[in-house]
Amino acid sequence: MNMEQNIKVSILVPFYNVENYVGRCVESLFTQTYQNIEYVFVNDCTPDKSMEVINEKIAQYGVADKCKIIIHEQNKGISASRNDCLDNMTGDYFLFIDSDDFIDKDMVELLVEAAVKENADISGCGYIEEYADHCVEHPQRYTNNHDEMMRAITLLTLKGVMWKLLVRSTIVTDHRDEVRFIPDRNMVDDYLFCCQIFYYAQRFAGVDRCMYHWIQYNPNNYTHTTIFAVESQAAAIRKTEEFYREKGVYEVVKDELLKRKFISKLPLLLDKECYDVNRWRNLFPESNNAWKDMRFSFGNKLLFRAANSSLYSLLQFRSLILYGIIGSFSSGLDFSIYTVLVRLLGIHYVAANCFSVLCGISTSFVLNRNYNFKVKDKTKQRFTIFLTVGLCGMLLSNMILWLCIEELHFKEIISKLLSIVLVVFFQFLLNKYLTFKS
Asked: With a threshold of 0.70, does the pTM exceed it?
C-alpha cells in the first residue's frame, strides 16, 4: 500500500444542523486505515452545536493539522457549501461525505487501492440504507465501459450521488467553469454534477462491498414528494440534456434520458400529495409512452395509457372511481355471502346481514388502504374509524331491510340491493372526510 499512500485524498464535509449525528461521522473519518487524508469542513452557518462537536473530535484525534474549516457568515445552501469544499481541496482525489452519515474505516483505503489498480478517474462502492430498526444493502456495479457507465448514471441504475465516489480532482479543476454545483434552490444538482463527472472520467473502478452508511432516521433530512421536488428534478434533467447535446453524446444516452424523464414525473400520477394529470401530460410529453419499454405493474400500465389518452380527464376523479370499484367488489362479496347464508343455509336475514356486511367492510378497508388512498400510517386508528363507519352502515342497512321487508313487503333480495346502494353512498362520504383524511 506504500505507493497508494502517496496519493492524497480530500474528504469534503459540508455541515448544517447535525449535532446529533456529526460526531459519529467524523469519528469514522478520523479513524480511517488510509493515512494521507485532508479534511475540508464547511460550516454553512449552522444554528446548533455541530461546530463544537467537530472541534472536540479534532482535538480528541489530534488531526488539526489535517483539517480545514471554512465558515459561512450566513447560510448559503448545500450547493455553495460543496463548491467551497471543491475550491479548498488540495488532494489528488476527493470524496464527499454527508455530515449525518458514516463510512467503514477501510473505505478510503479500498477505494484508493481500486483506483490505483485500474488507473481510474472514479472509484465507487455500494451503500447501506440505515433505518432505526434495520438496514438495507445496495451493491453498485461499476465497469470500465465509458458509454455503459454514462447510461447507468443517466438512468440512475447507478445511484446519482457524490458520497460513494472517489473522484480524481483534475476532473473538476480542469473544467472549473463547467463542473460545478449550481446554487439554484429550484434544482437538484447532484444529478447534473454526477453526469458531468461521468462524462469526463475515462476509466472507472469499483469495490464490491457496501461501505457507505446512509442515515434514514435523521428527521432534518426527511423529504416528501411535492410538485416543487418534481419540478426541481425536471430542471436538473433539462440542464443535463443540454450538457449532453453540447458534448455530442446525446445519442449515447438518449433512451436512458427518456426513461429518466418519465420516472421523474411518476409522482404526478402515483402520489396523492402531488397528483396532477395535466401537469404529468405536459412535463416531458415526449416521454409519455416510455413505460412501454419498462417494467411496471399491469394496473400502472393501464393508468399510464389512460393518462395519455382522451380519457385522461376522468383520472381527475380516479380516487372516487376506484372507491366505487372497490365498493362494488366489496358489496358484491357482501351480497354473495348474504345470499348463501339466507338462501342455502336458512340463516335469519339479520344475522346473515351482520356477517356479510362485516366481510364487506374488512375487504373494502384493506383494498382502499393499500390501493386507493395508500395511507400506511395510523392503521389501527383508521380501521377503528372505518369499522365504526361500517357499523353505522350496518345499522342503516338493517333499518332499510326492516323497512323494506316488514313494512313495505319488498322481496329480501330487492331490499338488500336497495340497502347496498344507500349504505355505500353514506359510507363513502364519511370515509372520504374522516377515515382516509391525510
From this structure: yes
